[in-house]
Structures are given as structure tokens and as C-alpha cells.
Amino acid sequence: MNAADHTRPGRPVAPDERAWPAVSVIMPVLDEERHLAEAVSGVLAQEYPGELELLLALGPSRDRTDDIARELAAADPRIRLVANPAGRTPVGLNAALGAARHGVVVRVDGHGVLSDHYIRTAVAELERTGAANVGGIMNAEGQTDFERAVAWAYTSPFGLGGAKFHLGGQAGPADTVYLGVFRREVLDRLGGFDEHFVRAQDWELNYRIRAAGETVWFTPDLVVSYRPRPHLRALARQFLKTGQWRREVVRRYPDTASVRYLAAPAVTVAVAAGTVAGLAGLVGPSWLLIGWLAPAGYAVGVTGAAALFGRGLPARARAWLPPVLATMHLTWGAGFLMGSRDAARSRRAAAQDAAASGGPAT
Fold first, then answer.
1. Same domain, 126 and 39
2. Is residue 352 part of a domain?
3. What long-range pairs does 189-196 form, CB within 8 A, spacing at least 24?
4. Range of the domain at 304
5. pTM for the full model?
6. CA-based, 20 to 30 A from 257: which of 143, 191, 208, 244?
7. pLDDT for 233-265, tens place per residue?
């Protein structure tokens, strides 16, 4: 079935009507001591009718992640361990992909938990739609008040914007989806994950999938529980890196720039410029004090959004919302404005390699 068939209504296929394709689940893992066992359990409990293997690509973790992975592998022959000494997500994904045996590839993270029948539903959607990649909703779920605030921000237009995989929506073609279940032959044809992209490698791969004339399909029937970062410093580091690498996506693919991506950098510039002007007004021309309107107005905005729309949260989680929102917006914006030094070094290395070989640089 090709992508043009994706509007054709389908029906669930009973397991006794045909053989289900074998599936390889690939999971890059680094410092996941807290969540790895839960993530692996979510895969092994799928009750998928076909053959299933799980490949854990182990980076150089600083906690007990590797010990836990070895214990899990010893307890279940479906689990195989793959080395990822570089520790970078796309490198681990490609290492696991290279070791995978099967024609359907399910990408899962070490802090994500698949919903019941996730793989079976995704495989059925792959076959019904003819898509190259099928994915669904990133359902952020916090276990502490801080994490609950972060989870709320993930699923709110005030936090990460309006992407379907955060907010839900109708099934259909999409620019990108969370994680993904892929037809292996498409991944092989496109060269797998681009290891240049330390972050945003999913988005970049989905862009290439669509550019190749294939379909990326979103369905709200697929849900993955996501465990947010546990404290403000980790959240800031995550969003700074995400902003840096989103800038790299826009640099390589300028047509992907949008108002949603440029909003956080614009707010960051306004808040920073207003703060600098306000501070200058304390010792210089008093008219510069008007600059304080920018950070003050932003603070009022995030506080008001938290107060009006966060009412379903416990009081302590709701109190975390303003600093969580500000951290997400301003560190993402700062990262986008700064760009990534790692990306710049990677580009220089690629240019030098291309010059030495006589080929084009990316």
C-alpha cells in the first residue's frame, strides 16, 4: 500500500487473519537508572502477536544504568545490549538500528513508557496508511510537584506551542511525531539518523522522510508516557540544548522557520534588552527605565497564565508554573540565539573532510 491510500478507512486486523511482522525496538540509554526498568517493562508487556526484540544502546552512564540493563538482559532473551561509547542519541540509535534484525523499527527512549497495545496499533497503522513513520502523543506525566508543573507546560500552548504530539488532534499526515514506528527499508534508504544532530534528530529525520515523498502519520491512538526532568537546572539545560539544535535545523532547512519557533527567541531578546535598558536607567537617563516594562510584562504574562489555566494542579505544582514556563521559554530562546558550538565544530570538520575528499559539505 502506498501513501496515497492513507485516506482509505481501515479496520483492525485480527491476529489469526495473517502473520504479524517481526519488530525491532531500539532504545538509546544514558543515565536512566531511575526509569530504565519501567521503560523496558513497557516494551516487554506489549503482548504483540509477532516476534519482538529490544536493543538497548548503552552510553557511558555515570549511574547504575548499565548494571540494570545487564540484569534485564539476563532475565529476558528478547533484550540485546549494544555499545554506544559516544553517548550521543543519534549514534546510539544508528548502532541499535545496525544490529536490528527486523523490518519494522520502534523507537523508544529510556524514560518513556509505551501504552498498552502501542506496537500492535502502530504496525496496523503502518500497513493501513502506507506511511513510512507512525507516531502519536508524548504524554508527559510528573511524579513530583515540580515534574507535574513541567508536564502541564509540555501539554499547554503556553509551554511548547501547538504541535499535535503534545496537544493531540485528529489522525492524519504530520510534519513530525513523537519517537515513531518506522518501515525499516525507508530508514536504510535515507541513511538512518543524522549523527550531526545531537538533538532534534527525530524532527530532522521526519523532514527527510517527507522530502523523499513518504508520509509521516500522526494518530492519537498511540501514547507514550514521558517522565519530565526532575529539577529546574536539568530543565534549563535540556531546553538550552533543544533551542541550540533547533537553530541548527533552521540553518540547514530555512523553510522550516515558523512563528512558533521564532516566538521564544523574540521574547528572550525583548526581556534581555528591557532588563539592560532598565538597569542603565538606574544610573543614566531616566527614560531608559521604561525598559523594565518588558521583563515585568513577561512576568505578569506567565504568572497570569499559570493562575488562570493551571487550576487543576495541586497548589505546590501550580506555584512552580511561572518559573517552569520562564525557564522553558528563555533558555530555549537563548539556545536558539546562541546556536550550538558542537554543531559549528561538526560543520567545520565536515567541511575539512569534504575539502580533502573533493565532495560537498553539509
1. yes
2. no
3. 192/93, 192/94, 192/97, 193/90, 193/93, 193/94, 193/97, 194/90, 195/88, 195/90, 195/91, 195/94, 196/90, 196/248, 196/343, 196/346, 196/347, 196/350, 196/362
4. 251-345
5. 0.83
6. 191
7. 999 999 999 999 999 999 999 988 888 778 899
